[in-house]
Amino acid sequence: MARRRRILLGVSGGIAAYKALELVRLATAAGHAVRVVQTPASQRFIGAASFAALTGAPVLVDEFERDPARGAFPGDPQPDHDPLSHLELAANADIYVIAPASANTVAKLAAGLADNLLTSAALAATCPLLVAPAMNNHMWAHPATQDNVALLRARGVTVLEPPTGRLASTGEQGAGRLPEPRALLEAVEALTRPPLAAPSADLVGLRVLVTAGGTREPIDAVRFVGNRSSGRMGFALAAAAADLGAAVTVVAANVALPRDPRVAYVDVETAAELQDACAAAFGEADVLLMAAAVADFRPAASLAGKLKKAGEERLRVELERTPDILTGLAAVRRPDQTLVGFAAEHGDGALAYAREKLAHKGLDAIVVNDVARADIGFDAVHNEVTILTAGGETHVARASKAHVARAVLDVVAGLREPTAEAAGPAS
Ligand code: PMT
């Protein structure tokens, strides 16, 4: 079970408030203690009784209302005195998550207003603040909202990028959705992760290049050959490397996950674009972590318009090999760079086959995952891997991708430690 966090959840007014219920359900199922504060407007969408039932704790809306739980989180003892609710809840929280954050609430947070319990608690909070905006796409794109978001980020607030897709108003499409509750919980756990116990895995001062997601190779203007990579593994590696002090760049192939403000992103679609982006960044990198699922084949020709199906019973799409990007980078590597590949394998002989890849691709380590399993690997929240190096192998049992990422970086840190021989004789 994950380490228990005290999560203060602020719910503001918007249709996406219904997703906050699922976030609470997932968070409590993962063993976290959750308290909820709501704006009056949010109660037009979801009532306090639903949050109270899921959290097992009173829900607060009014600043002048006393908290029957006296600012305690479920499972914690209540103080003898009767504290001010917004101060005590914020003081006891490990993280304050505002999801959904309406355009109005984002603006109030940026202006430092404290006109309701949610915004007062935000001003009082000294714990990490995670804001997940959700609104109409035009409201999100408005310069006022974008300025407010930039100001909050500059102050150290983590503001998640709202994914693009169908919005609440009929027929509306665009950026403004609340991230899925599971992604929100992942962001909460990542922001409240304790510092790594082993100081040996310090990456301070290193530049880490990560690839994430799955490439899409166009057949025509609307169709593509792709794969099920979500980008979670690559993004978890990036977050873990940033936690350890590295300067991180992610080349993201079609990843719709929340962005980490500490990380630089280059968005790409195809294997060719991913190759170009990697070629541009590789020279500067000390470590390459190649978690992207890159197409091995792409349509030899792609149509500019949309393929017509009239009269066709069968369609042949000729595919051609894509270059092996990792092998290409390994061929021009410097000896001081550390290269880690991933191997999507299954069946008997997976490790032997991956060990062969380690050698012929010229890598320092390869992370093998079984892509035949639905509970790990592609588009799963967890992974289970074996990390192969020239000197041995480390098995990491099924765990969150954040945990697996830490284990990969421990191996990287170990590979980069100077050997006694290289360090010279002890004085
Ligand atoms: O994104 P998630 O949903 O979290 O899923 C994570 C993952 C399953 C995609 C990830 O853990 C993983 O296994 N990524 C590598 C997938 C893959 O393409 O494996 P491969 O065995 O086909 O390729 C071996 C290595 O060569 C990989 O590092 C790959 O990035 C690289 N490669 C592959 C083909 C190609 N043309 N160029 C490459 O550089």
UniProtKB/TrEMBL annotation:
Pathway: Cofactor biosynthesis; coenzyme A biosynthesis; CoA from (R)-pantothenate: step 2/5; Cofactor biosynthesis; coenzyme A biosynthesis; CoA from (R)-pantothenate: step 3/5. Catalyzes two sequential steps in the biosynthesis of coenzyme A. In the first step cysteine is conjugated to 4'-phosphopantothenate to form 4-phosphopantothenoylcysteine. In the second step the latter compound is decarboxylated to form 4'-phosphopantotheine. GO terms for molecular function: FMN binding; metal ion binding; phosphopantothenate--cysteine ligase activity; phosphopantothenoylcysteine decarboxylase activity. Residues 6-187 form the Flavoprotein domain. This is Coenzyme A biosynthesis bifunctional protein CoaBC. Residues 1-207 are annotated as: Phosphopantothenoylcysteine decarboxylase. GO terms for biological process: coenzyme A biosynthetic process; pantothenate catabolic process. Gene3D superfamilies: CoaB-like (3.40.50.10300), Flavin prenyltransferase-like (3.40.50.1950). In the N-terminal section; belongs to the HFCD (homo-oligomeric flavin containing Cys decarboxylase) superfamily. Residues 204-413 form the DNA/pantothenate metabolism flavoprotein C-terminal domain. The lineage of its organism: Bacteria, Bacillati, Actinomycetota, Thermoleophilia, Solirubrobacterales. CTP binds at residues 296, 306, 323-326, 342, 357, 361. Its EC number is 4.1.1.36, 6.3.2.5. Keywords: Decarboxylase, Flavoprotein, FMN, Ligase, Lyase, Magnesium, Metal-binding, Multifunctional enzyme. Its cofactor is FMN; Mg(2+). InterPro entries: CoaB-like_sf, CoaBC, DNA/pantothenate-metab_flavo_C, Flavin_trans-like, Flavoprotein. It catalyses: N-[(R)-4-phosphopantothenoyl]-L-cysteine + H(+) = (R)-4'-phosphopantetheine + CO2; (R)-4'-phosphopantothenate + L-cysteine + CTP = N-[(R)-4-phosphopantothenoyl]-L-cysteine + CMP + diphosphate + H(+). Residues 208-427 are annotated as: Phosphopantothenate--cysteine ligase.
